[in-house]
């Protein structure tokens, strides 16, 4: 059976909003949607992940990107979203296709049930020949609960729909081996291991919340799901189809030839740490998905708070992240179990349960393809031995 061609396109604020006037860049939107119409006519299912609402709403509140605080940005998003969607709607109508808005928060992508509900909505729109435009719901999100950047949001959507390509359109030609303003900087045209270039990815645009670091993180997430990422300057005719045809400069992050399952990709590619535990070295070395999970006797310290069904990060005693898995207990319950290894779990918690903290089937062992997180400082860890 022929696989459906799917592509996710992410567009940054610097392309959508005039940096001085903070108004829509109609010429760019016209070029972009005309190109997406070509893709749709060629049989692609297209999802657009768009920034821009916050920038486009600032004029209504008389604030600027340099001075706006969190509340200003939340209110600006509420003002700017109708402007952005109206622009997309008008231009899409010109090319005879419909759009729909899908607003998400981090919880919609990190909590499994909400993730599946979002997935079902996106697939229903695609099956109805409607192009979803996915945005983070900046009106209600705070720094603690937001995705943080639309690059990783787009990668999450690419995983969700099993897209073959993730296209990130930005204000530069792609990833350079050093700061592109430095003399001798060379464009990295193709790469498999994004970790090699993380040291040269600092910096963000004036209007956006993500820089090249978040694009590398997004590319790594997409790679795990068998999706190739193309990063390029959006200021071009046919900004997407020209990339797919290899007609202009860009960075191509090659998909893994043996992608993870949808379940494993969702487990491993987190947008934020919910919590973590440190287990002893022997237990860490013995971890095997489908064979051995995490038991309460393994735990040495806990970093929370987290709740049951959160995905937690599992570190060894050397501070190396070894695995991620779905927790069967909250951080408080985990501590109670770990500090009382000989007591029946049912008596400790007041309900019938086994004491396995992370079941073997809900565990993914990290390898060199994954970008690992740093272990929390020791003064932020709750030690199991009282």
From TrEMBL:
Stretches assigned to the Aspartate/glutamate/uridylate kinase domain: 5-233
Binding site for ATP: 10, 209-215
Family matches, as InterPro entries: AceGlu_kinase-like_sf, Asp/Glu/Uridylate_kinase, G5K_ProB, Glu/AcGlu_kinase, Glu_5kinase, Glu_5kinase/COase_Synthase, Glutamate_5-kinase_CS, PUA-like_sf
Main enzyme class: transferase
Annotated EC: 2.7.2.11
Domain of life: Bacteria
Subcellular location: Cytoplasm
Alphabetically ordered keywords of this record: Amino-acid biosynthesis, ATP-binding, Cytoplasm, Kinase, Nucleotide-binding, Proline biosynthesis, Transferase
Gene3D superfamilies: Acetylglutamate kinase-like (3.40.1160.10), PUA domain (2.30.130.10)
NCBIfam families, A to Z: proB
Functional description taken from the UniProt entry: Catalyzes the transfer of a phosphate group to glutamate to form L-glutamate 5-phosphate.
Family to which the UniProt record says this protein belongs: Belongs to the glutamate 5-kinase family.
Identification of the protein by name: Glutamate 5-kinase
Gene that encodes it: proB
